[in-house]
Amino acid sequence: MNFVSISLVAELADQIEKTDLEIPALAGEYRYASLPLCVIDAVFSISARYSSTQNTVERFCQFSGWTLFAAARETRGPGEHSVHEFVAICENIVPKEMAASVYENRQRTSSRSGILKAEAVYLFCRALLSAGIDGFTDLTQERREFAEAIILGLPGQSSGIAFDYFLMLAGDDDLGKPDRRVQSFIGEALQMQNLPQPRQTSVLLRLAAKELRRRGQNWTSLTLDRAIWEYHRTNANLGL
């Protein structure tokens, strides 16, 4: 498939309806109390077991004394702690020490010459500050675009997957994380010879959610992404 058409999006929406997915309640990570926690999760979750990522975020909160979750996404305001507070912590601890003693996670952005994810989180947050983003309420469209332009040029961030996931965690419901499970679901639904690329997956999710809303269903890209991921995980475990 080299193009996306209206009929293709309708076909994907048809397949989603036939699958009888349920709109999920969002997990705790979608109400992180501070914006830097969204960055830690987004960077460490790439090519990693999510339980490992959750433990990494929790260990940082234990170290810093920060609250992990807000009561609700809608009440976070600018956030409990700012990006510049997080950067100040990182500037007093070298990345190797952050990885070993704070995160207790020495993962790298790539197995081949990748930098420590601990360093990647720091660089990501520095980029946010350069774009004028210090808390949740600073995520205007213009600042997001400026931040994205900087972050896509950082080591290990060129795919944009971590940046999109960061925005999802920070409150953007119009994005999806193109996890391989979601790619597989869409590839199978549309009978594609190869899995859709990550960016293509995100666009197809967004278009399918829009089509389903047109049909009277209350889907967003975010909830559709989560529902597909859980459906695919459950069926894989059952051997279906």
Report on the structure:
The protein is an all-alpha fold and 240 residues long. Helices cover 56% and strands 0% of the residues. It has eleven helices and no strands. Helix 1 packs across helix 10 and helix 9 packs across helix 11. The longest helix is centred in the last third of the chain and has 18 residues, at 221-238. The protein is globular and about 55 Å long. The mean pLDDT is 93.
Order of helices and strands: HHHHHHHHHHH
State the end-to-end distance: 26 Å
Nearest-integer average pLDDT: 93
Classify the beta-strand content into a percent band.
under 5%
Characterize the overall form: globular
- Got a strand count? 0
Count of runs of 4 or more consecutive helical residues? 11
Largest sheet: none
Our Rg estimate from Cα atoms comes to 18 Å
Percent in helix: 55-70%
Which SSEs are present, and which pair or pack?
Layout: H1 6-19, H2 35-44, H3 50-64, H4 83-90, H5 95-102, H6 117-130, H7 141-151, H8 161-170, H9 180-189, H10 198-214, H11 221-238
Main attributes of the structure:
11 helices; 240 residues; mainly alpha; 0% strand
Brief summary:
The chain is mainly alpha-helical and 240 residues long. The chain has eleven helices and no strands. The protein has helices at 6-19, 35-44, 50-64, 83-90, 95-102, 117-130, 141-151, 161-170, 180-189, 198-214, 221-238.
